[in-house]
Amino acid sequence: MKNNSYSVAVLGAGNIGSAVIERLENLDNEIVEIDLKSVLVSDISKERTFNNDVVTDNFEDILNDDSIDLVIEVLGGVEPGKDYIKSLLSNGKAVITANKDIIADCGNELVQLAQENNTCLYFEAAVAAGIPVLKPLIESLRGEDLSRVTGIINGTSNYMLTSMEEGSTYEDALSTAQELGYAEPDPTNDVEGIDAMYKAMILSLICFGATPDKDNVHTEGITSITKEDFDWASRLNKTIKLVALIDNEDGGFNARVHPVLIDTKHPLAAIRGALNAVVVEGENINQLVFSGPGAGAAPTASAVIGDVLSACHQLSSNQSNWYPLRSQKNDNKNFDDVFSSWFIRLSVTDEPGVLASIAGTFSQNNVSIESVIQEGRGEQAELVLVTHEAPEKDMQNSIKQITSLDSVTSVTSTLRVYS
Amino acid sequence: MKNNSYSVAVLGAGNIGSAVIERLENLDNEIVEIDLKSVLVSDISKERTFNNDVVTDNFEDILNDDSIDLVIEVLGGVEPGKDYIKSLLSNGKAVITANKDIIADCGNELVQLAQENNTCLYFEAAVAAGIPVLKPLIESLRGEDLSRVTGIINGTSNYMLTSMEEGSTYEDALSTAQELGYAEPDPTNDVEGIDAMYKAMILSLICFGATPDKDNVHTEGITSITKEDFDWASRLNKTIKLVALIDNEDGGFNARVHPVLIDTKHPLAAIRGALNAVVVEGENINQLVFSGPGAGAAPTASAVIGDVLSACHQLSSNQSNWYPLRSQKNDNKNFDDVFSSWFIRLSVTDEPGVLASIAGTFSQNNVSIESVIQEGRGEQAELVLVTHEAPEKDMQNSIKQITSLDSVTSVTSTLRVYS
After folding, report:
1. Neighbours of A244 (CB within 10 A)
2. pTM exceeding 0.90
């Protein structure tokens, strides 16, 4: 008879923690028997929806309880969760976390620590909450050389962009997102792409064995996107999405987060509202898309429960980290050297020679122009250019020089085009 | 030190078999060491792209070779593959198959046989080829109660429907699909929904623990779909897809395959050409979508390689079938009792009382009408109705009775509406 009963502790009993505890209590015993042994909370006197006898405010009680096999960390924030996870793994306990900040910060180190201590670490909920995507990437697709991974992995910004596509202003989209609880009172992490950056760092580790620093993941958010950009996108049969884009082609690895203009027929264009999606590309698999709910207590708890089953499987087989993480195959590529095609909107004075001076500036920087549209006349003239692919540094130089041209009133928007 | 080296045999060296063998020979040794020990072929004298020394035309050589850990069956057809798999599992060898016919026929029995013999059986490639979807359903989502699974799981018919959406006739779509190698010279299995039915039977087992007979999976293909149906679909902001639809709500389990009118904003509407997709729904996960290439040697081999890794994992941990298959929770629901909303197009004589008699017929069968559009006048008049949801038997009675009305020249099309 296999051992099919495990004692579990949960660190944290907030929104996510409570959902996880409820799922654990109702888990089908046909699959595995879970004994909820302990829950770490800050206030042990507070009334709980679960059996109050198991609460403790002392982490050491859990760390030193040899009967506990598996600990689920859902505290949020980096500290003290990170220290707790290290101590638990060092004590040989299996750990599951939903905490993207910790895994982005030191996922590689923690995976190795788990391995050294013959135990395991799972974190499916850290990227794209309810979508089972990390496990397929780690296991089913471990034999594939991946070329590119693109994700819509921040539900808040995608909700806002979807609202703007439907006609909202940025401000209205943000305030609705806040009313619905999708955006925090301080929305910085979501709208500036920081949350997506952490998740991109985790995908970099899982898909390419790469551990870029925060500073090496170029990160732009959606704060400069306007309704007018969406009007233009629509004219070009495109929409605008904030993506994490990680590739390992053209001589190097690079991870970045920024908005893109994307064709309306691309699968990511169909990811609307607070949904998430991850597109995985490689020679044999061509293009796989995983999509679903990227946030919320129920989907997050669902991912944690999936991890509980994986961890119990691993505990029962006494195997640590059977699927080795990928090793990074290519050197890091500097963001300056990443190629993109660009959409650029300029306010210009409508006088002879304007286009010539702009085109000349691009040309001096070896950027070639794919199409130009001029709208309006006189002081209100607008010039919309789409370039062919060019390295980031050449584009940035072009844009800087164009901004200083006398005939250019302002550079209204600059967006990379996804292809 | 864990045992990380396995001896493998492959049954069949056709299109898929050759792709699998090439992948096995180039598999990263960091993950697992594979020794290709034997390949079963019908003609051992034929020149091969792989080491000719390993070919045999005698299955017994493989069955009785105790050094072989794992056998990959890619012969196609039910026999002799089914007998081979049974013998191999009975001899304690791990088996991987890409063969949907065999798994649809007796997957449950084979999984149990694997379990009894403390070995394993994997078949990721049998549904939606290159998309890792069965393993997430079996493992990550094992703790979820699923309510409905909907798949575009036949690439040929989806390719044809996409061509028709773009303006092709059925005949042109079929002949192009045949030229491109998507459709067989005899396309029956694809266009009549039979291939999708087999895959629906496998999804029924994996998602709901149900083992419906072929006769209990209502199956309709795409042969009666016309260009005009697509014109109408477009007017209603919908398109037409052939889906496998498996649900476990409203008092019972039912699996079926038929074309549906589906909203253009639904994720399945975006699955174009030969792609496949599986949509999984449940209370906690809401709606997950897995999409990617549903056919072809490279994606199929990719799924087989994923299974090889899973099987080696299982062999190294000496665990048989840790994730138990789901047990069927609800009774089977008869297709007659399945509710759908319908789109019905009729040729009618334009005379007073036509609509009254048609509406009266629906009403006698307790079917209520959501909308009616009349097009044209006189002999060419066309009536297009969309009904509210009603049980299959009531709709079929209504349609039969309407067909026999004097004022109805013909029932031009009947399509269920997906919601």
Report:
1. 29
2. yes
Task: At A89, list the tokens.
Answer: 């793994």
Helix (H, G, I), strand (E, B) or coil at A253: strand
Look at the block and give the residue holding tokens 């300056």. A336
Q: For residue B410, count CB atoms less than 10 angstroms from its CB and return exposed for 0-12, middle for 13-18, buried for 19 or more.
A: exposed
What is the spatial distance between Cα B155 and Cα B182, in angstroms, rounded to a whole number? 8
**B3 to chain A: which residues are within 8 Å by CB?**
none
A288, A377: one domain: no
Q: Is residue A323 part of a domain?
A: no
| Residue among B270, B287, B322 minimizing CB distance to A270 | B270
Verify whether residue A82 is a known catalytic residue.
Answer: no
Residues A306 and A281 placed together within one structural domain of the fold: no
Give how far A29 is from chain B: nearest CA, Å.
Answer: 10
Q: Are residues A103 and A167 in the same domain?
A: no
Return all residues near B156 (Cβ < 8 A) that are at least 6 apart: B177, B182, B183, B187, B190, B191, B195, B274, B295
Amino acid A319: pLDDT: 65
Catalytic residues of B: 199
Same domain, A379 and A253: no
| Cα nearest neighbour of A321 on chain B | B313
A210 and A91 belong to one structural domain: no
Does position B380 have pLDDT exceeding 80, yes or no?
A: no
pLDDT at B276: 98
Q: Is residue A327 part of a domain?
A: no
pLDDT, position A320: 60
Euclidean distance between CA atoms A402 and A252, whole angstroms: 30
Answer yes or no: do B255 and B210 share one domain: yes
**Mean predicted confidence (pLDDT) in A66-84:** 96
CATH code for the domain in which residue A112 is found: 3.40.50.720
Which H or E element spans position B194?
helix B194-208
Give the ipTM.
Answer: 0.95
pLDDT value for A318: 65
Same domain, B284 and B392: no
The total number of structural domains in chain B stands at: 3
Q: How far apart are CA B414 and CA B12, in angstroms?
A: 43
Whether residues B27 and A143 touch (CB distance < 8 A) is answered with yes
Residues A281 and A406 in one domain: no
pLDDT of the residue at A359: 94
Nearest alpha-carbon partner for B383 in B340, B413, B415, B341: B413
> Which band of pLDDT confidence, cut at 50, 70 and 90, is reported for residue A1?
very low
Residue of A nearest to B319 (CA): A317
| Residues B389 and B247: beta-carbon distance below 8 Å | no
Asked if the bond preceding B80 is cis, omega within 30° of 0, the reply is yes
Q: Looking at the domain assignment, is residue B183 inside a domain?
A: yes
